Amino acid sequence: MWTQFWPVLRIYNFSGCSIHNVLILRCFKCIALGASLTVLDYFCALVWMDTVTPNLTRTLLSLFQEVDRIITQMMRAADYLGWDVTELRPVLKDMMTAIDVDDSGTVTLEEWLKGGMNNAPLLVLLGLKMTEKDGQHIWTMKHFNKPTYCSVCESMLLGLGKQGLSCNCCKYIVHSQCANKNPEPCARTFVKSKQEIGVRNTMIAFNFPLVYVYFLLFCFFKRHDECVLRGLSNCDCGPLKDHILPPWAIYAVSKIVPVPRTHPLLVFVNPKSGGKQGERVLRKFQYLLNPRQVYNLSDGGPAPGLHFFRNLCDYRILVCGGDGTVGWLLDALDKENLQVNPSVAVLPLGTGNDLARCLRWGGGYDGSDLKEIMKEIEGSELVPMDRWSIQVIPNDPHEAGDPVPNEIINNYFSIGVDASIAHRFHSMREKHPQRFNSRMKNKLKYFEFATSETLSSSCKRLKDCLTIECCGKPLDLTRVSLEGIAVLNIPSMHGGSNLWGESKKSDGVAGLEQSEVITDPEALKIVSQDISDKRLEVVGLEGVIEMGQIYTGLKSAGHRLAQTSQITIRTSKAFPMQIDGEPWMQPPCTIHITHKNQASMLMAPPTKPSSFFHLK
Predict the structure, then answer these.
(1) Domain 263-379 adopts which CATH fold?
(2) Which positions fall inside the DAGKc domain (predicted)?
């Protein structure tokens, strides 16, 4: 158990109070999870640390005594971690009073273990994951903007801050102090016997003013107490039936028998994407779908969800995150070796999102109704997307360099001016993350690095230090002075820039499509991009100013150099490079890019024009 402390000890400074507060919080979490014996290992190790952090051991050993001192330490730790502690003390007071069974004013270790294991609000406050038993609520502390009533004591939830707990899955609402008073169980997510297959409704009772209302999960109907038995046999999971795996479709947690003619949706959410957007999207999908269809990528990555759906043949995947999250999932699909790869849709979170843009899912989630997005998934088009292997072989294996971030290209690869800006931005963010805590600051920093690169021209005369071969054919880089090379798989880069540009229409395109490599300038004018054609486009960039002109629309495209199915690049000096937005500094090397496979992606339906004559 002591080993769990070591990562914390390495991060925080012993001289301040930060290590003090973090260790205390970790100790509370350990006890709440029921570590009755191994928690003593913490104290033994902390005795050894007492010369470095005086009074720390005595503080921890006194935690199991006075209730007020326990609450004070928890408040300090919560405040250090940035939690909202405005109304935390009275809530903690009620919880600790409940844990103090003998009403002695002190809490023993045994009382901690017994109370902490079963105290749902305490686990929520400590940020601990609830047990994943069927029927177990997944609580979130929440503020309610309209009159809301507790479904246990039937009283209104009052207060200015977080007034109570709401279940992510069934929206059951209780006071913090009522969460442990045997509330109604959460919606079941599977059936335990074959006899239950076909039982079509899961109901949760809610307390509304003057009346009890039953909420029918999955079909989203509300019924009065006396109307609850009417029309239950007609429930078909409502408007989202094509995406939902109802409880009666899952037998004994492992065997899935979907409703005929449906396409269950497997949802992966990266809660770290888009600030707090990811966390909100995760909670919403846990409510709209069966929670067993929704996976937090922070808890084991994509593998648990893919394993659960491994025997299904006809299902879809929705990835909620940035381009890096999509690449993570596609890599996981490769490793699963599925007989039939499911099709993948994207809900873009954060900024950039070039892949989501070219698949028409947009540049970022704007908080719109997730039901509408799932309706768009129903009407989406299946599109194969090329994926490319990249092999980087250093000229001198002993020369130090950054690790190559990826072995697969989904979006683009670049070398030179744009990678230099991205690398400087990435390096500065790694050193000083506190300076990059908002989108506006990030954009200003990026503009600062771009301006600096314009003045320094660190990648000037690129042609003298680099050669490119397309299918064995050398590429002429002398026609124009270039500071950057981009190898494109999709028609979007740098958050929406189309470096290849639009192509002229011509009757001679059909013959060119059969060529493995095209380098003729006139022929390149009529060649268009296609994410399914097993071809890459090579574009040259004159510098930062040209990049800005393309992004703002003042210039239509960069310099088209080639369209090819294989690329070999040789460098004679260190260059900044990037793969799908992940930059690194690479010593002299040889780079081979070849076709790997195709991923089944879903392209959103075309957006309808919004005008007086095209009303939705």
Answers:
(1) Rossmann fold (3.40.50)
(2) 260-394
